[in-house]
Structure formats: C-alpha cells, structure tokens
C-alpha cells in the first residue's frame, strides 16, 4: 500500500510524466519530488496542476499501478431479464468523495471499485482521451 501515497503529473518544462511526493505551494504552483536514479539525491519538478493524479495503491491484472484519471478496460457483468450478461467496457478512474473511494466511470453494475484488480490500464485521459469518446 506504500504506492497509495504517490502522485504523478506532467512536468511544466517538457511535458513528461514524473511521479513522487506532491507539494502544493501557496502561490498555486505544484512540485513533485523524487530521488534521482543515479545518485539518490532529491530532485523536484514543477508540474501542471491540471494533470495531477494520485495512485490508487492497486495494480491491474498485468501488474501496472492504477492511477486516478487512468482509462481502464474491463469485463462487466450485469443483470438482465434473462439472467446475467457481460460486456467489454472502458472507464475512467476517478475519486468519489461520496463513497471516499476510487471508482470507475461507465460501470454497469454495483460498486465500480470491484473491477480495479480485474482491469487493464490502457491509457489516461490526458494522453488518450479518444479512448473514452466511443463510450459516450
């Protein structure tokens, strides 16, 4: 669960993703800090606040960390008049303040957090918004 406290966002200077600890400044700026891979020193990157994503602390069925704003694919099972049916679905991982949990949009059945460990991360809303357009 240590990954649950990670954040990622796009760097202001080059648009690349960076992950680590998030610091929000009084000035409205945001910085993500992490360790430099070569020497372990602390490095900070100013990030675009509109792209900040928190890690859910969970991994998809392929072992990839799942982040807020990820687009995931999953097989959804739901009730019909004739019993149960299944559908391939795509949804966006969002924080739900009412249930205080990460949920998946476009979920046909009950609690959407139930599919998080059975899904596959296929992109995110910043780099791949077209993945959700066909679902709307």
Spell out the key features of this protein.
mainly beta, 136 residues
Helix-strand layout with pairing:
Layout: E1 7-10, E2 17-24, E3 30-35, E4 42-46, E5 53-59, E6 65-67, E7 70-80, E8 83-96, E9 101-104, E10 120-124, H1 130-133
Antiparallel strand pairs: 1-2, 1-5, 2-3, 3-4, 5-6, 7-8, 7-10, 8-9
**H/E series:** EEEEEEEEEEH
Structural class: mainly beta
Low-confidence stretches: none
Q: Give helix % range.
A: under 10%
- Oligomeric state of the chains in view: single chain
Provide a count of the helices: 1
Number of strands: 10
**Percent strand:** over 45%
Rounded mean pLDDT score: 86
Q: From the alpha carbons, calculate the radius of gyration and give it in angstroms.
A: 17 Å
Reported for the largest beta sheet, the result is: 6 strands, antiparallel
Task: Measure the end-to-end span.
Answer: 33 Å
Form type:
elongated
* Spatial arrangement of strands, main beta sheet: 4-3-2-1-5-6
Describe the fold and architecture.
It contains one helix and ten strands. It has one helix at 130-133, and strands at residues 7-10, 17-24, 30-35, 42-46, 53-59, 65-67, 70-80, 83-96, 101-104, 120-124. With 136 residues, it is mainly β. The strands form two sheets. Strands 4-3-2-1-5-6 form a six-stranded antiparallel sheet, with no helix packed on it. The radius of gyration is 17 Å and the shape is elongated. The model has no long low-confidence stretch (mean pLDDT 86). 3% of the residues lie in helices and 49% in strands.
């Amino acid at each position: 669960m240590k990954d649950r406290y990670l954040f990622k966002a796009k760097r202001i200077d080059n648009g690349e993703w960076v992950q680590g600890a998030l610091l929000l400044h009084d000035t409205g700026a945001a910085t993500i800090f992490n360790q430099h891979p070569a020497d372990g020193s602390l490095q900070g990157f100013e990030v675009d606040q509109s792209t900040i994503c928190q890690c859910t602390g969970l991994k998809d069925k392929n072992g990839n960390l799942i982040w807020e704003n990820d687009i995931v694919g999953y097989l959804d099972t739901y009730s019909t008049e004739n019993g149960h049916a299944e559908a391939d679905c795509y949804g966006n991982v969002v924080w739900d303040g009412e249930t205080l949990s990460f949920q998946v949009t476009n979920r046909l059945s009950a609690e959407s957090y139930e599919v998080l460990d059975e899904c596959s991360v296929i992109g995110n809303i910043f780099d791949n918004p077209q993945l959700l357009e066909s679902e709307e």
